[in-house]
Write a structure and sequence with these properties.
By secondary structure, this protein is of the alpha+beta class. It is 22% helix and 34% strand. The chain is globular and about 50 Å long.
Length: 225
């Protein structure tokens, strides 16, 4: 699996086996195995629910982060993930130098979450990936209030072989608790400002986060091992 993910050279590759009702699911970047991944889970659910279990309303996955459920919801697929709220930490010079800008607030969960004031600041960031990889965190999320959505973000994980991820479900396990409190509502709209971009609809439900998004199938093929 690690070798296939390295050859794919995408942010994450998901692997499933369909012998049981609860589907084993693992995720790999080109460099490491992940403990949680959103967009590859969404893709796996799309394939299963549209090609193998077409009559089902949902699929249950067994993963390193426990059982995860993905269900059809208003034309989208909605994932049920564990919340990972961050704790405030001091802003340090290493982070500021790596990002090339000073955030107004920094929190730490699995990832560093750096909060800025505007969507333009997030879009204009040009971080130093080699410096980001030296930080004592798995990855760095940057986020700010959105202009047409509740909040925007980007996600950098050079340490895991992913300089910038197109759309990151696991990051929203930390983003959703933060913005739910800041904006005073449980249901929020989000946009990830990567080159490809992506829109998500998230909801805070106690110690869980639901993350909904659309899926588009673009390729079927065979891998020769």
């Amino acid at each position: 699996m690690a070798a296939v993910a390295m050859e794919n050279n995408l942010s994450e590759t998901a692997f499933v086996t369909l012998q049981s009702e609860v589907v084993p699911l693992r995720w790999f970047t080109p460099a490491i195995e992940m403990d949680l991944c959103g967009h590859a889970t969404l893709a796996a659910a799309h394939v299963i629910l549209n090609s193998y279990r077409c009559g089902q309303a949902s699929v249950r996955f067994a993963t390193r982060s426990g059982e995860l459920i993905v269900a059809r919801h208003k034309g989208l697929l909605r994932m049920d993930f564990p919340a990972r709220p961050g704790k405030p930490i001091e802003t340090n010079d290493a982070l500021v130098t790596a990002l090339g800008a000073r955030p107004r607030e920094v929190l730490l969960a699995r990832d560093v979450l750096a909060i800025f004031d505007s969507e333009d600041q997030i879009r204009d960031l040009r971080p130093d990936m080699s410096r980001l990889a030296m930080l004592d965190a798995f990855a760095v999320i940057v986020s700010a209030p959105g202009e047409q959505v509740d909040f925007v973000s980007r996600f950098f994980a050079p340490k895991a072989g992913v300089p910038e991820d197109p759309v990151t479900g696991s990051a929203h396990c930390t983003l959703t608790p933060y913005w739910s409190v800041k904006l005073g509502k449980s249901s929020l709209s989000a946009r990830q400002l990567s080159a490809r971009g992506g829109e998500l609809w998230v909801e805070m439900l106690g110690d869980r986060v639901t993350i909904a998004g659309d899926t588009v199938e673009y390729l079927r093929g065979e891998i020769t091992l």
